[in-house]
Amino acid sequence: MKQRTWPSKSKLDSPFIKKQTPLKNHPTKNPFIKNSKIITPTTSSSSSSSNSNNHDFSQLPYDVLLKLAATFTAPNLRTASLVCKSWFEALKPLRESMLFLSWGKRFKHGRNGVKPNLIKALDSFLKGAARGSTLAMVDAGLVYWEIGRREEGTCLYRKAAELGDPVGQCNLGISLLQGAARGSTLAMVDAGLVYQEIGRREEGIGLYRKAAELSDPSGQCNLGISLLQANPPDPEEAVKWLYKASVAGHVRAQYQLALSLHKGRGPNNNLQEAAKWYLRAAEGGYVRAMYNTALCYSVGEGLMQSDKLARKWMMRAANRGHSKAQLEHGRSLFSEGEMMRAVVYLELAARAGEAAADPVKNVILQQMSASSRDRAMLLANIWRPLPPSH
Amino acid sequence: MSSEKLLTLKTRDGEEFVLEEAMAFRSLTIKNATSNYTINNTPLPINVEINTMIKVIEYWKKHSERGISEDELMNFDKKFFKLLHNSELFDLVVAVDYLADKGLSNAACEQVLDKITGKTPQEIRDIFNINNDCTPTSLGG
């Protein structure tokens, strides 16, 4: 899913842990580590038999040391870097990771005079992750989850987990469990749909809510829509759920969210946000959103005015069977002198019940020869809508 | 008797020994090497010394035992690593990284980490007998 524009506040409730308590000279309280990290003094009273370079820990190969130190926090890394020249050299990439990690945090939370920017935060975290720090991997994973790119997030948790990072392991476990829970949330949503169909709305909404709280976008979308249609409607909560589903990439939710923002049913009547979400839904293949996007472009409402883009989206909607779009597109073609194509679209619109199509359509037909008229009707007869997702 | 396939390995210092294939394949490096390797019974050379390899095999044998409990394994691991001199631990860490056995690698690395975490640089040097060759100017920070 193309995520071109970031929502201004993307605060999905995150089930993940962000960091563990720093390791000190005592057993950690983290339940995920099997062996407690008790620091034992070296047992060999006769220390290493020889200082021969082969067995000297200062000669630890760089990549081994990097893997060892992958889970280090900044203080531990600093300490390790000061042990000897060789370790200092070896740990350089991880020190760079730390820099990117701190930049990432600044961008994420907006500290030190930096405006919060989730994309830049992700970018920094990824750079840190590439240089080997599991802390950066986990933070990148958290951002990915926040913006709905779960697969990529889980992948990073897995990388951190494999390097022995307990937070990575924990979060990987949680992601995998959520994946398993998905199977059941799909069933919840389906059951909710049936309840609604047979008129037991409250029970239906209850199931949508269960699924929504387990982060299922379909559940969130359906819950949002139900809340909008409820008696009395709850637009604020509805928008909250539609937002979550939209950020997760749910196309119908994006359209519904845009509608709510457009009609001022949410807390803010925000045309630009609405148009943004129409566009996202349109890009996701939602036909009604394509039509609305075309309208926004044509009058410059929420989006920069552009006849070209308006035409593009109107045509897309028309080709997918949107009757009003067929009418509009037919009209555009007429004004451009493309009579044959215009009359086909107008005929389709008319057949779908758009009465306004008839006058213009008849004007064109009257100017055509009999054979052209036949051809136009044939084209209209054999026309089939394109499938919704492109 | 089990019709286990056997593998002959040859260490860096010239010693040859035989191992069950299933056990040897705990090492991804060995596993990948044998897949490219068509001549039967020629020993497969590995870049590990015999002393270290003995330790590795001891670990593998214990962790392949059927019916062994988590607790027993934990106790074995504790003792196993406790008895290692630092130089042996070093060799083990390097060897296991080369052999690409995730389980043993993580266990060995955890041992090293335990010794490092929460310590000052001098304390770490003392534990591992590392010379302090850092001068204030040689470190950029």
Verbal overview:
The complex is a heterodimer of chains A (390) and B (141). Chain A is mainly α. Chain A contains 19 helices and no strands. The longest helix of chain A is centred in the middle third of the chain and has 32 residues, at 166-197. By secondary structure, chain B is mainly α. In chain B, α3 (50-64) packs across α5. The mean pLDDT of chain B is 84. Classes of the chains: A mainly alpha (390), B mainly alpha (141). The interface between A and B is large, with 41 and 40 residues.
Features of the shown structure:
heterodimer, A: 390 residues, mainly alpha, disordered N terminus, B: mainly alpha, 3-stranded mixed sheet, 7 helices
- State the major sheet of chain B: 3 strands, mixed
Helix content of chain A: 55-70%
Quote the average pLDDT of chain A.
84
Computed over alpha carbons, the radius of gyration of chain B is 18 Å
Distance between the termini of chain A: 13 Å
Termini separation of chain B (Å)? 62 Å
What's the number of extended β-strand segments of chain A?
Answer: 0
Task: Record the SSE blueprint.
The complex is a heterodimer of chains A (390) and B (141).
Chain A: H1 62-68, H2 74-81, H3 85-90, H4 92-109, H5 118-130, H6 134-146, H7 150-162, H8 166-197, H9 201-213, H10 217-229, H11 235-247, H12 251-262, H13 271-283, H14 287-299, H15 307-319, H16 323-335, H17 339-351, H18 357-366, H19 370-382
Chain B: E1 6-10, E2 16-20, H1 21-24, H2 28-35, E3 44-45, H3 50-64, H4 70-82, H5 86-99, H6 102-116, H7 121-128
Parallel strand pairs in B: 1-3
Antiparallel strand pairs in B: 1-2
Helix pairs in contact in B: 3-5, 5-6
